[in-house]
Amino acid sequence: MTDPIVITGLGLVTPLGHEPGEVLTRLRRGETAACPPARFDPTGFACPRYAPVTTLEAEPLLGDVKTLRLMNHDAIFAAVAARLALRDANLTPGRDYPPEMIALYGATGLAGIALPEVAPLIQHSAGEDGTFDPLRFGRHALHRVRPTLSFKILSNMPICFISIFEHLQGPNAVYNPWEGQGAQAILAGWEALREGRADAALVGGCDVKAHELAFISLQQQGVFESWTTVGTGIVPGEGAAFLVLEREARARARGARPYARLAAGALGTVHLPPVWAAPPAARASDHRSGATAAAFPPRSEPHGATKTSSLATPERCPAARSGRENEPGEEGGAGAAIARRLGGLVQAALADSVHPPGALMSSADGDPRFQHWEEEALILAGPGAAPALSSAAIRLAPKPGLGNLFAAATPVQLAIGALVVREGAGPALVTSFGFGSQQAVFRLDPALAAARAPTTRATAAATAPPPGTDVAAASTARPAPRAARSGEAEPAADGTATAVHHPVAHQDSPQAEPLLFHQPTGSARSTAPTGSSPIARRRVVVTGLGLVGPLGNDLPTFWANLAAGRSGTGPLTLFDASGLLVSIGAEVKDFPVEQVRQWFPAAAQDRDRKVLLGLAAAREALQQAGLAGPDARSRLARAALHVGVSLEVFFLEDVTPLARHGPADGDLGRRLLSGPAGRSPWQTPLDRLAEVIGETYGVGGPRVTNCSACAAGAMVIGEACLALRAGRADLALAGAADSMLNPLGLGGFSLLRALSMNHERPAAACRPFDAARDGTVLGEGAAFLVLETLDHARARGASILAEVLGYGASLDAFRVSDPDPTGRGAVLCMRAALADAGLSSAGIDVVNAHGTGTPKNDITETLALKEVLGPHAYRIPVHAVKSMTGHLIAASGAVEAVVAVQTLRHGLVPPTINLEIPDPECDLDYVPGQARRVQARTVLSNSFAFGGQNATLIFGAAPKGDSP
Question: Does the keyword Iron apply (predicted)?
């Protein structure tokens, strides 16, 4: 699609208010919400402040009191921000666009649950000596919390609640946990519009860091180090921000008034190290007083536009001026490399800009390192970024005023930037730099005739410029537009230009170039594939498979046992589950933990089983694809990494020894943080697996962490496929890992009464489509696929195993605990996948069903299959892998994708075991008991998540002449 993408609606929930114009005004006045924590005793924490949301009444706006009781604060913030954004855009799903054509992409953060809600689990799980007692956990602690606690700890819940409140049913995904994943949510919505998969997109993020458990996690991960070192640093906040994106012509046709065009975005992997080392400016400061020359903005100046620049100049940054490495001590000289790579992102975002940026939305958040890197990056980016450094530019740093909202930080900065652009500041540069390895830069351009558009309520309070600043003068005093460089398009009549990719300077080989997203104009030629474009899209193939699961620790063993119909479920041995309602599961047996740690030294201290399982599966996939050796690093440096996970793991054994003092007595933070040095954090960040894989193998492209619950494993494969088709990468590693076989995971699901309690026959407990089924069985496992474009695979001589033909995603917008009984969400995603693959229902040869063994899901999926495939549904095999593996939650979709490829390679459909008495309402051919030989060219694989997220993949046999 060539129609420009514009921002038409803003929705904010922040510590400085919820009206975008009011928030901008308060930021310009230099106001800050940062204050000493009142919700908990900050003793023991390096950071002495937080930024809480104190005034929000969600019930009058959302109305559904019953649903609100199920929601955590991050979900409430998200739902409110989403509704405000839709209202601001005057967009009503079903009236302006079909619900299935409105995409929903969001980012969520870690540790969203507050201590009082988990305190009973801590207090009543401790034995007499204070150690964690799993029997007490099951018999006493678990029953002291509400079953709805499970709804609050899953990272995908905020997005699911938005879909329920707003009846959204379109493409979707949930990302986690840092600023870079908030940028990914924006870019995912942008591409859904560009590629014709959606007509509008609601994109944004939410996070809750203003509570004790979040502070513990952040301090253990090194986020607060600068407070100890130089007396200033990040202030955690909470809130949410969502934006409405539309194509400009369609938006104006329905009467919308765009804020700005989303003109360009650059996403790259630039790892900002957690070990703190002061940049030169910070080292020159007075550490005793806590003052620092690198603090941004200066305490004597407001956060808004100023006449005196606080940004670095070449004279103040000798490392930037000369190009040499930073002084010894700054990450061992790595600081200059970081600045160069960030500068490459800035340069990429400005590569096709006709007019220079008149505003900068800075990522500076109090940590001097981030300001230092950003300042040098702007200088290194060259003349295109120079206007953002000038005294005429409007500069805003929202984080010091609002606190760092992490997963919501990028959407907030874009929202503030959009307001400034519509005021007449010209293009705005928005940086998204922060913790985690994913960094991004955006450019916002004025929408057509934006200056003539009436001011809406969102900007009514923000139209006055800050004291001492002449916005009109600033906009006219900027340097003249630079001449187009060789290869660039000349400006169009409306002031836009054709997007042209330029090689980015200062990149350290073999570091990948930034992933570049350009805004095409009416005169541009878009090379991205679209649903209606006649341009042939790039074909995507599978060249590597890796799998660890309840039936085997490698793919050959797993496949042999699956084909033989062996059950992987049985009594749990990983911990004593006898105190729980459910004590059976599908464990990975004899998993070589220590060997995996030897393969991956970076994971030597990791305790989260999903991380270790995922590492083993990723290694096998890369080995099969011939990409695990040192000679493959140059290829992987330009590869994308898409990883699916679901639940944060809390190690209760770390905190129960403190229970004798009372976990809510205001002293938990100090006592937990004073533990032995070198101990791994009590909570595993959800991007941990992606980071270890990426750093071990040198995966330099985007690292996306998807936490869309049971749909995550399928979604990461689908999204990686979309990126390859569109030319955003040539090679990708995509997969997922999960393990719910821990007290919190198993206990939470047992409270929901979703699990089988067939302890007498544990091997037969998971019974998809059987009349006697009574719930699913939780399991653990991991699977990864190496995906490549067909041309790339052929060029390097790779063995091609299968082809990815289609991908579809949807939301069913029904209830958080139950699927829509009509199967609406499943129908939508299967039809989207068929359309994407260009297939009719008759083109499907085998269905790999979601098949959980729960009473409602199996009937719903059967109804959906019959609606989508019609009479053909009765003529093809429909099998359920979970009858043998149990439900692997986030990993299920990836494991079943590998099974789909194996079905095509071997011409064999695995059986559905334990199907003894067919349910009359489940009347398809489920391949009961024994595997079946088939001549299949296509397999459709379904994954439907708790909370209503759905994904469907369609695989095809390897193109002729490419089979191994």
Answer: no
Q: pLDDT digit string (tens) for 909-943? A: 999 999 999 999 999 999 999 999 999 999 999 99
Q: Which of 361, 341, 374, 454 has the alpha carbon at shortest distance from 401? A: 361
CA dist., res. 627 & res. 696, Å (int): 12
Please give the class, per CATH, of domain 540-648+685-956: alpha beta
DSSP result, 307-366: SS--S--TTT-HHHHH-PPPPTTSGGGHHHHHHHHHHHHHHHHTTT-SS--SEEE----S
Set 18, 211, 372, 887: catalytic member? 887
Residues 490, 945: Cα–Cα separation, whole Å: 48
The CA-atom distances, in angstroms, between 801 and each of 625, 727, 952 are 10, 21, 19
Known catalytic residue at 766: no
| 3-class DSSP assignment, residue 694 | helix
Residue 907: count of CB within 10 angstroms of its CB = 13
Question: Is 850 a known active-site residue?
Answer: yes
What's the DSSP call for residue 215? H
Crossing angle of the two packed helices 824-837 and 855-869, in degrees rounded to 10: 40
Longest dimension (CA), the chain: 80
Q: What residue segments make up the domains of the chain, in order of their start? A: 5-113+152-272+398-446, 540-648+685-956
Instruction: Report the CATH fold assignment for 5-113+152-272+398-446.
Output: Peroxisomal Thiolase; Chain A, domain 1 (3.40.47)
Same topology between domain 5-113+152-272+398-446 and domain 540-648+685-956: yes
In angstroms, the CA 178 to CA 25 distance is 26
Those residues whose C-beta lies under 8 Å from the C-beta of residue 10, and which sit 6 or more positions away, are: 20, 84, 85, 88, 241, 243, 244, 259, 415, 418, 419, 458
Main-chain dihedrals φ then ψ at residue 177, nearest 5 degrees: -125, -10
Of these residues, 710, 766, 829, 922, which one is catalytic? 710
- The label of the residue with tokens 């330029």 reads 502
In which residue ranges of the chain is pLDDT below 70? Answer: 1, 111-114, 150-151, 273-333, 449-513, 515, 517-536, 658-672, 674-682, 961-964
How do residues 862-893 score in pLDDT, each as one tens digit?
999 999 999 999 999 999 999 999 999 999 99
Res 567: pLDDT: 98
